[in-house]
Amino acid sequence: MIKMKRLNMKKGMNETLLKNIFSGLLILCLLLPLAGQKKYQSSPGGYHGELDFPISWKRYYSYAEWTKIMHDMAKQYSQLADIQSIGKSRMGRDMFLLTISNKSSGKPDDKPAMWVDGAIHGNEVNGITCSLYLAWYLLTRYDYDPYVHDLVNRYTFYILPGFNVDANDSYVTWPNTSNNPRKPYRPEDDDGDGLYDEDQTEDVDGDGELSMMYIEDPKGDFKLSSDGRRFVRVTEPNDPSRRFRFLGPEGFDNDGDGRINEDDIGGPDPNRNFPADWNLQQGNPYPLSEPETRNVYEFWLRHPNILASFHYHNTGRLIMFAPPPRIQTSLTPEQRQQRQQQFQQRLAELKQTNKYAQLFDIEVPAEYQEDLRVQTEIVTMGARILKNYRPTPSGRVGQAQAASYEMFGRYAYLIELWGTPDFDADENGDGRVSDEEFLKWIDIELTGEGWINPHKVRHPDYGEIWIGGTAKKHITRTPPARYMEEEALRNTHFVLYCVSQFPRVEIDEIKITPATSNLFWIDVTVKNERAYPTSSDRSIQLGKAIKDKLIFNCSSNITLIELPAALSAIDLTDRTTFVPIAKGKEVEFRLKGHDSLIYRYLIKIDGEEGWVEVKVISKNGGKDSKRLNIKAG
Known about the structure:
By secondary structure, this protein is of the alpha+beta class. The protein folds into 3 domains: 63-170 and 283-420 and 481-500, 3-Layer(aba) Sandwich (Aminopeptidase), CATH 3.40.630.10; 190-265 and 421-475, no CATH class; 505-631, Immunoglobulins (Immunoglobulin-like), CATH 2.60.40. Helices cover 29% and strands 24% of the residues. It is built from 14 helices and 26 strands. The protein has an 8-stranded mixed sheet with strand order 1-2-4-3-9-12-10-11, sandwiched between helices. The longest helix has 34 residues, at 2-35.
């Protein structure tokens, strides 16, 4: 009898063990698609997948090349990335976009998302590099880096490396100045001769770069510098030096009107073509007239899950954030001066504990205070991550980041990349870079390869001319290739930081306090420890915000006592502990950044024990739930 009982016990233990093992394996199998991090790397000196998809960041890519890279990444990382065309450019090129998110953890379009675009202006192609690098970083590090792994599981990244694809490709592929081409290729008759874009800048000497043209002229205003590398103005009337007259940028008189480069390729400024604060002078001929801007705007309309957006431009090393509407105040000069002094004093106090601290001398209405707070916090960290970038409010007139915030309620950032090398070329510390300092920087940092020395050329219209005395294309607005990866890496870290601060709602605590033998107070604390609120102030004003929801549930022997909406004191001796009584089983609210709220319920229990469960649901902050058992007496 005892032996039989022991056998049954052993059999039961084995069955239990097998069940536990099976359950464990089942859970593991279910979690594998979510976890999938088989190559976890904990050492900063270790391998993080860089050669899983090798790519050189020490060069600029043409449209054909960068879109092939996008397609190859989507193919190799098909579980994490999809590629699609969001529409055609004016010249028929596809505007390819990568959607990056772990598909096994949910539909990408259902997750809070970050939008990133680059190079809305044709010559701002380092924005393509930064956007493409972000995609590469997310995909190659996913299996190695728990930080990236978590972000790709939870959120979605919509990445459009090239925005103004026609002009972007031209800038990379053909000789151009650092400033051109900038606009979409809408044909325009700039010189009024009935012809369109017929007199463009052109590479007269065939060296692959565009510079400036001069011709010898005894009455000219220029001469060669003492080192023969620049054209400088003549300051002494009797200067015996050989003189030159300035002709203009490289080019030919294609239409025979005696002028050069007066009808270059161009159209409206695409970053003045969005509807927010649009005006005819800067954004002609009408809002979203360009297929490129219209394609992006229509994608935004179809994707309300976008919570924030990044827009890469150049130049100047600026972190420009879309600010809330301002209060216009009428101040006397004395009041304005006093206010500025107070502002500077507050900023100086903040910088005593954080040298990257930011403060902005703008006033916004009470209903926009949270948006100003979070933007200030975010760009303060941006200054810390990007090091030598300066945060400032961005412009509004027809701009993409203005439309993102003002029309959709999304937190938006315009990043002005790179710029002239002021940070290390200014040797005497006077705040500016002289021509001599600039040339010295090129000679030392670039071993001289960034400069076009003056040289003689035969021109079909002017005869013998001189060309040169300027920096090459990838120097001032777009960085030399050797600097690109470091800048792309820092900007990627800033984007990822912003996404890491997307709201995340949690049930922090459920506290039970007996009221009588069968009545209990239930205090539920919900929190959002991240910087961003669950909805922006702007989205609330637009009527686009979806409120967070707290849902109460309980066992069948527990009754929720309906009480009128009021405040209840958790501690009768402390008036600061008044919290709202939840009205019914569902409560709607909004959690700000670094915020928590307490809601109080009164329940009645029949019997000795039961349970209560609360769930919090947020469109942008996710979901959480907790259950607690209650024992009467």
